[in-house]
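Help wanted!
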Amino acid sequence: MSRMHITLTVNGEERELLAEPRELLIHVLREKLGLTGPHIGCDTSHCGACTVEMNGRSVKACTVFAAQADGAEITTIEGLGSPDGLHVLQQAFREHHGLQCGFCTPGMITRAHRLLQENPDPTEEEVRFGMAGNLCRCTGYQNIVKAILAAAEEMNTVKEAAE
Amino acid sequence: MIPASFEYHRPTNLEAALATLKEFGDDARVLAGGHSLIPMMKLRMAAVEHLVDLQAIADLKGIAIDGGTVRIGAMTTQHELIAHQGLAQAAPIIREAALQIADPQVRYMGTVGGNVANGDPGNDMPGLMQCLDATYTLAGPDGTREVKARAFYEAAYMTAREDDEILTAIGFEATGGGWAYEKQKRKIGDYATAAAAVILQKDGGVCSGASIAMTNLADTPVWAAEAGEALVGTACEPDAVGRAVEAMLARIEPTEDNRGPVEFKRHVAGVILRRAIERAWSRA
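Answered by r_m:
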């Protein structure tokens, strides 16, 4: 089968590539674009380790064909922060011990980022419901929830200060 | 897991999509949100030579509410169903059910059309649409036709839709009354061990109308007229609820799988339906 010409805007930068239609978005991001933040965990759309943002929606990149994403805007964990300038959520996960092995963390933070865009001041229950598509086998979730609530508070304080 | 090769098509209108289906016949399948089809393709349990992605067809999206008449475009996502204020007013049972489907990421992609058209007995929307007495619009090479949700499901993955047809919209008349969508599942993202959709009308303390359907307890959804009739004319007291549950249990045909043996599933079905009726009645 022939390869397709695919254009993606990834973390604000336009990227062009050739891919077979059957290639999954997660493989294109990791192997063709070198963005290894989003991980492949279960590869069956359960665990959420591959979560990225596509056109303002959290998606599991293991269950989206690159062809479907042609023309889309994608944000990965690499687009949220950097080692020198951590995103508020990354900082909160570090401070509140929201990770141990770290495998689920990029998906967790990318998903939490979208959740807070849609609901900037969530309750603990809303955080748990909104994060239900991301599995963690280390933390027991308590500190992940704490980190997200702390990040929400921090982001709201910064926003209020700016207004 | 990498699926077998296929050609990708992204038509921008329904006519082009139908023409592609006609051209490639059995070798073509439509892609909605993909969260049933793509996993099956990755497991190589589904082979598709021509994948027709419906995402760019604007006519298939959106929710229109005109008085009590609701029309939902097939490509409307579960997330959009949940977020729609008008729909939450007209038919709150849809929001209640959609919130219990899969997880947030899947609900951003998963569509109501894909959920009802796939014919998977585990999907929640088919039973719900039978409860609502919804009508599906199917577009094919010779025009469109309408099929009642209650007549659409023939067996697991077998429906009244022909291979060259696309399910474009779902319509129903919102009836008001009390509602409940109750679902027992093992974990987030799982299909139901048993789920019940119940809508009840109340008039002067008495049930004046009832519609009851259950999910994942047979190879099709089960809408049981006699279960509803057992409640009509009663005050939904425990005896009447018991008769409705018995009428439904006589209709379901669960099979043993990793969600449990038949006896367990029949037990759960009874518990879930009783809860759904009680909650719907409390809201009627």
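OP: Thanks! One thing I noticed: The beta strands of chain A are 4-10, 13-19, 51-54, 57-60, 73-75.
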